[in-house]
Amino acid sequence: MWQGDEKGEDELLASCYRKSLELARKYSIKTIAFPAISTGAYGFPPVRAAGIAIYQIREFLQKNELPETVFLVCYNKETCKSIKKALEGSL
């Protein structure tokens, strides 16, 4: 649950992406898809969550061969805008 990052939510979300990617590598998974983790009922700010996701995924992929493909799944327009904004800011 988002609580204004008073409980280290940014790091928890980052860890979720890292651990998932590590498991994909460990089990030789070539493709993985992520929803906008925690941005729905848990209330994580979408733009902030997208930035964390993009950063963690890029960092991991720069150092690892697997997974080869990562999909970020948008479930609404706000999520897609947030992901696009994060991608543009990280190029």
Question: Can you summarize this structure?
Answer:
The chain is mainly alpha-helical and 91 residues long. It has one domain (9-90): Leucine Aminopeptidase, subunit E, domain 1. It has helices at residues 9-26, 46-63, 77-90, and strands spanning 31-34, 69-72.
Largest sheet: 2 strands, parallel
Strand content: 5-15%
CATH architectural category: 3-Layer(aba) Sandwich
Per CATH, the class reads Alpha Beta
General description of the model:
The protein is built from three helices and two strands; from the N terminus they run H-E-H-E-H. With 91 residues, the chain is mostly helical. It has one domain: Leucine Aminopeptidase, subunit E, domain 1. Helix 1 packs parallel to helix 2 (46-63). The termini are far apart. The mean pLDDT is 93.
Strand and helix map with partners:
Elements: H1 9-26, E1 31-34, H2 46-63, E2 69-72, H3 77-90
Parallel strand pairs: 1-2
Question: Which features does this protein show?
Answer:
mainly alpha; Leucine Aminopeptidase, subunit E, domain 1; globular; two-stranded parallel ribbon; 91 residues; single chain
